[in-house]
Design brief:
382 residues; globular
């Protein structure tokens, strides 16, 4: 695909480079076969879910048949280079499995901590590609997605990993992953990719045609919504929901926002979710996406938040944390109705967040791992 990066410095969450909000124009030479894609400006915020669009040159139409996972064990496997600097490298997602912390990011790095983030070890990982997102269905079983449409899996809590699947011909990243149980999971990504497995990742089927997404807009995030189903957000404000947990999908027609959305999380309240993205836009729905309320986010003494929001997490205590560009950390203790907001002094862009057992936060992004107080401030500087 022909593509032109209009503006870009530093890094965005899932592999692109940014400092200002980058804008991507795609040329007609890159249109996917048999798709009436529009030649239009597409806007991607800082820390957008692993869209390294400046490195994506072309994309082929997705195959309709089930995709067999490819084993790469043995001498043919290319492993991430182990480095003591990995903990300070670009990291894009982090989770608390209940037994340890696991973080993923650039160059195939997967790190884990058994002491609440005080020290980190690097796992042996059979890839050097950018890894964009991870999900654990329990303390032992997790999946990671990334560039080259790679999907990795662990059965020992993140200590060791195997490559379940990759598709080099896609030339595009997967950006998020969610599993219902040990068997059924979904991955979403660039150019409308939606993959499904019903056997724990041994096979992945492209089910992108279940979505009404003729222009193949990027799908940036997927989440479960309590007592309701699954929800996907993406490029140019696109939203899709499934009330039967992935079997069928409905496109949301009355969108609250026409800019790109990079994250979506369900709260601990039924049918309630938050969607967020470019320039500090954050929306809340209490009816599984039928209607939306924009949440006001104001920085202390500086007016409305204008930094992009990248990722968020429903924490074990029912509170919500959202992070983004400019060191932005949002916290809500009322199911997303209101948020406290800080911009960390270092202004490093943040890509992922989780909580420690004592309520403090682990933040990841530029500069790797950051330990923070529950508000997002540096420890001792609240």
């Amino acid at each position: 695909m022909g593509s032109l990066l209009i503006s870009s410095t530093a890094y965005n969450k899932k592999g692109g480079r940014y400092m200002s909000e980058p804008v991507m124009r795609r040329t007609q030479s890159g249109l996917a076969p048999k798709q009436a894609r529009k030649s239009a400006l597409r806007v991607h915020s800082p820390l957008a879910k692993a869209l390294s669009l400046c490195s994506v040159l072309s994309i082929l139409a997705f195959a309709a048949a089930p995709l067999q996972a490819e084993a790469t064990a043995g001498a043919d496997a290319v492993y991430a280079i182990e480095s003591p600097k990995a903990v300070h490298s670009l990291l894009l997602d982090v989770v608390n499995t209940g037994e340890r912390l696991v973080a993923v990011g650039d160059r195939g790095h997967i790190l884990y901590s058994n002491d609440q983030g005080q020290s980190w070890q690097q796992a042996k990982v059979p890839t050097r590609q950018m890894l964009t997102s991870l999900f654990f269905v329990d303390a032992q079983h997790g999946w990671v997605v990334g560039h080259d449409a790679q999907i990795l899996a662990t059965t020992d809590g993140g200590l060791t990993w195997t490559k379940q699947f990759e598709d080099l011909e896609r030339e595009a990243p997967l950006l998020d992953v969610w599993f219902k149980d040990l068997q059924t999971g979904y991955a979403v990504g660039a150019y409308g990719a939606l993959l499904e497995t019903t056997d724990g990742g041994e096979n992945w089927e492209d089910i992108s045609d279940r979505l009404v997404n003729e222009d193949a807009y990027h799908l940036n995030a997927i989440t479960a919504v309590k007592d309701s189903g699954l929800f996907i957000v993406g490029e140019l404000g696109q939203m899709f929901r499934s009330a039967d947990w992935g079997e069928t999908w409905e496109r949301i027609e009355d969108l609250p926002y026409e800019g790109s959305l990079f994250g979506v999380i369900g709260t601990d309240q039924p049918a309630t979710l938050l969607a967020f993205g470019l320039r500090g836009h954050l929306f809340r729905s209490t009816d599984f996406g039928d209607s939306w309320q924009q949440i006001s986010l104001n920085t202390p003494n500086n007016g409305p938040l204008e930094f992009g929001l990248a990722d968020g997490t429903l924490l074990h205590d029912g509170s919500v944390a959202v992070v983004g560009h400019g060191g932005t950390v949002l916290r809500s203790t009322d199911h997303g109705q209101t948020f406290s907001l800080i911009n960390r002094p270092d202004r490093l862009s943040l890509a992922g967040v989780t909580a420690l057992d004592n309520g403090n936060l682990i933040l990841v992004g530029q500069g790797g791992v950051h330990l923070a107080a529950s508000t997002g401030a540096d420890l001792g500087q609240q």
